[in-house]
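name: query_chain
kind: protein
chains: 1
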Amino acid sequence: MWSRSKPYLLIFPSLMLVVVLFFGGILEGFMQSIGLHSLGVVPFTLKFYKEVIISTEFWESFFLTARIAIISTLISSLLGMWVIVCLFLIRKGEKREKTLLMQRLFQIPMLFPYLIAAYFVFFMLGQSGWIARVLVHMGIIQKMGDFPVIVNDSFGWGIIFTYVWKTTPFVVLMLYPVILQIYDSWIEVGRVFGANPFKFFRAIVFPLLISPWKTSAFIILSYTALAFEVPYLLGVTYPKALSVYSYEIYMNGNLTDRPKAMVINIILTMMLLVVGWIFYLLGNYKFSKLWTSKKMKGL
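structure:
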């Protein structure tokens, strides 16, 4: 009895800490969003939700945040899968050591915090950055102002580039252990049945990658939708990312506006829960099984 319950008892303090801080924070934010804050006895109200939802600034920030999160997730997920395909195709025989070296190189961006990555992108891609200076010295552009606005632009390209640079190695890290479980003998068996390495990857390996690929994509989408430091450094004054918009309302507004910041956070949390449920439906076992059966017929 003790041997069975011991692992659960050992993680119970840490688990309770996470539950109290995470779910307690969400509960406190929700209570403030409906007017039940600690500043006094305030009746239940949904006026803060109404004020936020009818606000043009909120929807401008929402579409900016959604655009940045979706584009960053799509690009990093596709790039990560492309890297995994390349690593799989070259990981045979004497090329195995080169694959491990390449995998280590892809992980270098993960060593830098997002704050440092944002500063790096600013100094590299800004109109007064290093690349603009090099192009001026080479005579390609006349002045640094001719360099396209990539950082602090209204579309968010600088933010997207930072997230892609940081999160693509994360996708590779999540997927690479799967291809390590594929033995070369399996590929040789596939060749006996007329499947080259690419067809083998499409029919056998890719279904194994769906679950971690889906998980990594959802993690990236959630983080890029909620992250603060990169949009704060590389964004524009209007529209702002929702995290920056919420922060400025909470810090720079008066006390009566703070429930609006909580409303924004609660809306983002609820939307991410819905997106997570959609990810679960799109990446469940039945989808993987259907993909495998179709590709096995095509071998």
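note: The two ends are 50 Å apart (CA to CA).
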